[in-house]
Structures are given as C-alpha cells and as structure tokens.
Prior knowledge:
single chain
Amino acid sequence: GKYDAVFSLFHVVNYVTTNQDLHSYFSKISWSLKPGGYLIFDSWHTPSVYSIKPSKRTKRFENDEMSVMRYSESSIDPVLNLINVSFDIEIEAKTESPITQRISESHLMRPFSIPELGLLLNLYNLRLHAVYNNLSKEVPTLENWDICIVCRKEE
Length: 155
C-alpha cells in the first residue's frame, strides 16, 4: 500500500451495486492502503432506509437569476436490495424571455448494513474501527440512513 488514508465520500460505495464490483472496490482500496492506514467512507444504512422508506420529494432553489425545481421519487427492490432514485429537474432562467430546461436522471443505489460491511471489509484485511451517524459522533439510528464508517487496515 501507498497511502495512510483513503476517503470515499458522497455515498460512492452505494453506487457499487454488484457483489463482483464490491469485491473489486474493496480490493483496490486495501491494496492502496499502508498497514495501519484508514479507510473512511459514508453509506446508506439498510435498516434505516427500510424504516424511513424513500418518498416523493420536491426541493426548490431560487435566486434573482433562476429558479430550480427538483422532484425525486424512489422505488425499492427488496429482493436485490437496490433503490432506484429518479430525479426530474426544471431550471427556469428569469430573463425577459424565460428559458426552461428539463433534465431527468436515475441513480441505482445499494444500501448496506453494518454487519454486511464488516464481512466485506474483513475479506480485504480491513477492520471496522467505528461507525457513526454521518457528520456526528453518535451511534447509527433508524432515524438517519446516512452513516460514516471508519476502518483500519491490519498490520
């Protein structure tokens, strides 16, 4: 390994949806870390995702120049443990002749439980050091599906 720490933020691991790709992901991270090095990443927490349940959401952002509406809707495949998050975004320029732009995209995401992550990490000589509700030092709860995982590569 070459690095003292690897950071994988913004739920990168949740975009890795197949077992084969997960093995490749953690293998490359482990190879990159020096013994004693740390991996810090965030993830969606499966028990919380299923407890809270994804819902339809609308967000509006606006300033003097534009207005942006983002609509999101999610569906869960409980057999494959995958979530498809669909976004529709409308951007309207506030000019004399308003211009509206529409963008649609989908994100396929895979949440993880803490024991599942521990099992995967152990395969690559990475040990769970700590797990927190993201952006805090609190233990994960069912009220927040965003967790932060700190792992250490064995010497």
